[in-house]
Design goal:
With 131 residues, the protein is α/β, with parallel strands linked by helices. The chain has 4 helices and 8 strands. A 4-stranded mixed sheet has the order 1-4-3-2. It has a 4-stranded mixed sheet with strand order 5-8-7-6, covered by helices on one side. The longest helix is centred in the middle third of the chain and has 13 residues.
Length: 131
């Protein structure tokens, strides 16, 4: 068994699609009213309507309830610590919500956190290489 994909559930599929396409730079290969899929090496990244997921799961209550708290985090690895700072500033300038500006953290990374339009917090990071 392998992990084939990650589907982000959204109330505003069009808004989230625009964010992942226009702010984060993913190329959309499918854009429909209730579903979007992005070109990505490895694991498939998609966005799907949360209310329709309720329909697909016989009305499971978890898709109809108001979400509270962080449910998932996407981690985007950059080529270098400098790239983390550059991308963070670009993302925030294009509409991402800055959560924590990039900084060197104790586990050996340079890491910054930002949120997408539905409040999901994600990280940008690079491994700090010693010289």
């Amino acid at each position: 068994m392998k992990l084939e994909g990650i589907t982000v559930l959204a109330l505003d599929v069009a808004g989230m699609t625009g964010f992942y396409r226009d702010v984060l730079g993913f190329k959309a290969i499918v854009e429909e009213d209730h579903y979007a899929e992005f070109e990505n090496d490895g694991v498939r990244l998609a966005i799907f309507s949360a209310p329709l997921m309720a329909d697909n799961t016989n009305g499971h209550h978890s898709y109809a309830e108001e979400r509270k708290g962080q449910a998932f985090e996407l981690n985007f690895e950059c080529d270098s610590p400098e790239d983390v700072y550059i991308r963070y500033d670009e993302f925030v300038a294009k509409g991402a919500t800055g959560i924590t500006a990039p900084k060197v953290v104790p586990w050996g990374h340079t890491t910054g956190f930002f949120a997408d339009p539905e409040g999901n917090i994600h990280s940008l990071f690079a491994v700090n290489r010693s010289v």
